[in-house]
Amino acid sequence: MRYAKIVAASLLIAMAALGLSVATARAEGNVHKVNHVIIIMQENHSFDNYLGALPYAPGSPYHAGACKNSDHSCVDGLTCTFDESGNLNCSNSNLDDDNSVVSSFHDSNYCPGPDLQHDWQGSHGEANFLSPADALVSTLNDGFVLVNDLTEQIDTTESPTGDDTMGFYTQDDLPFYYQLAQTFAIDDRYFCSEVGPTFPNRSFEMAATSFGHVTTNEIYPPGVNPANPFIVNNSDGYQPVTGSIFDLLDAAGVTWLNYAEDVPTSPIFQGNHSTFLAAHVRQIFNNVLIKSYNPTANNFFTDAANGTLPQVSFIDPSFSPGQVLTPAGPIFNGVSGGFETDEHPPWDIRAGEYVTSQIIGAVRKGPNWKDSVIFLTYDEHGGFYDHVAPPAASQGGALNPDGIDPGLCEDLSNPPASLLPGGGAECEFSESDVAAICATFFTPETAPYPAECANFNQLGFRVPFIVISPFAKPHYVSHTVGDHTSMLAFIEQRFLPKGSHLTLRDKNANRLQDMFDFNHSPSLNAVISTAPAPVLGEHDCPFP
Q1: Order of all β-strands in the sheet with 372-378
Q2: What are phi and psi of 375, to 5 degrees?
Q3: Can you list the positions of beta strands (E) in 100-166?
Q4: How far apart are CA 470 and CA 520, in angstroms?
Q5: Whole-angstrom distance, CA of residue 105 vs CA of residue 376
């Protein structure tokens, strides 16, 4: 009842008071020609870090912005020129702690480390260094260097390439990703869902809310032992009041699987009981543990080759360094060595690119390609610089998607107590992170959420977003604002009953359908290459 009132009130405000509406980008043709949606979500890179140099790539079909909305050959990337030696010199910059200017630079380090700052308070500080809680009101993107100098990468000396946050990669570094971006459709106004780290952003991807959580310290739901998350039958998962996309898919009889290299993400919301794991979790390559959940089930590559992919697939990379890369494909070898393939610093970005190329290539070669859509994106910016200010979230003018404020988690873990502000499971770290940038948030269980504190009404920083599909418009740049819930809105429109949604966020999310031509399948015969395999000992890898 409480949520229904919030939705009704928000809709009345949107229509009657503010006159807000969602500008829906329209596709050419019928979205129901899509029979398979595949989401590949990697880790921790901003748009400028990976694709900011895209308009300057040799032979690129694109030119640099600022871009008119109608110019779909324009990329709003970094502002650069070539010097006499052919090197990119970029004017995008941040101030350092000695008042010197640090400009964006080509980073030759594929294993940047230590990891950059990207938690709730750090990310808001990167958006507005002097007043993090005011990031939505005034987003300056001025704190990337200063925040990281104070926290994760403390300077001992200064150099033009010493601040990894300002680094960017080029086509020479990420040839496969640059080929995808120049062959298919990209969006240079796609943002992660929250100004913050992995768990809340992946929560938006799966549940269209983080239901009060702001930190990855709470990624393991009640019952899971963080020291050994592979133990099964000990958790029912988080239980958001509004449910998850998995609940909606199951209710509608839509087939879906979570293919994973080591730790699948769907149990965060569905629990890790044997019956669920057997029904919905599959190995990507060769993982003996995941194989044991359902010994007769195929892995991703067999399903792709046989044309038996489900209607919706969620692809999880390895989140630990347990992949040994062989000519036959990566083999999970436990956490004792090998490559981590999620691209999370300080792990080799080319390891993730290599595995992602194999996954996408398998779909391209298989029978399901003709009616598939692959979304390739990143959960959040990872502390890397981006020059575009994150906009307000499209959620009908509401402060948050579901009536739940940051640090005041609510869920169905132990009703009615867990339905009270701050009563949700595993919320203590979020409370302290929220208070770190808003001193008036000091009695979270009893006081109203302060209006001056940051809420869930701002998207996070831009992240790469590429649509790989026969329906993707070739070498096309969308400038339509989207976030992770745009993928949910796309799935809901295609597979679920009309009007299906989880929260105000996916209800109002743009489906980014200007990136598609369902009438003509213009990219049906597009050629997709394979990324080069990473080599230990090159490009400062592995990080010490």
Answers
A1: 281-283, 256-260, 312-316, 36-42, 372-378, 465-468, 185-187, 476-478
A2: -100, 120
A3: 101-103, 105-106
A4: 9
A5: 25
Q: What are phi and psi of 101, to 5 degrees?
A: -95, 130
Residue 393: what residue type? A
What is the total residue count of the chain?
544
CA 495-496-500 angle, to 5 degrees, is: 145
Domain spans in the chain, listed from the N-terminal domain onward: 1-78+170-220+238-266+276-429+454-544
Nearest to 211 by CA among 414, 486, 423: 423
Whether omega for the bond prior to residue 160 falls within 30 degrees of 0, making it cis, is no
- Maximum Cα–Cα distance for the chain, whole Å? 68
Position 322, amino acid? G
Question: Taking the complete model, does pTM exceed 0.85, yes or no?
Answer: yes
- Picking from 450, 442, 456, 444, the residue whose alpha carbon sits closest to that of residue 420 is 444
State the pLDDT at residue 159: 80
**Phi, psi dihedrals of residue 350, rounded to the nearest 5°:** -75, -20
Give the tokens for residue 351: 């390891």
pLDDT of residue 23: 42
Residue 24 has pLDDT above 90, yes or no: no
pLDDT band at residue 518, thresholds of 50, 70 and 90? Answer: very high
CA-wise closest residue to 319 among 243, 381, 241, 261: 261
Average per-residue pLDDT for the chain: 91
Would you say 210 and 203 are in contact if contact means Cβ atoms under 8 Å apart?
Answer: yes
Q: Which helix (H) or strand (E) holds 258?
A: strand 256-260
Confidence tier at 538 by pLDDT (50, 70, 90) = confident
**Single-letter amino acid, residue 449:** Y
DSSP-assigned letter for residue 257: E
Strands 63-64 and 74-75 come out as parallel
Residue 540 backbone class (left: φ over 0; alpha: ψ -120 to 50; beta: rest)? left
What average pLDDT does range 249-261 have in this prediction?
97
DSSP track, 443-487: -TTTSPPPTTS--S-B---B--EEEESTTBPTTEEE---B-HHHH
Topology of domain 1-78+170-220+238-266+276-429+454-544, CATH: Alkaline Phosphatase, subunit A (3.40.720)
How far from 132 is each of 143, 234, 476, 504, CA to CA, in Å? Answer: 9, 38, 35, 25
Q: Is the dihedral of CA 219, 224, 230, 234 positive or negative?
A: negative
| pLDDT band of 60, cuts 50, 70, 90 | very high
- Encode pLDDT of 137-161 as tens digits: 999 999 999 999 998 777 777 788 8
Supply 128's token pair.
């507005």
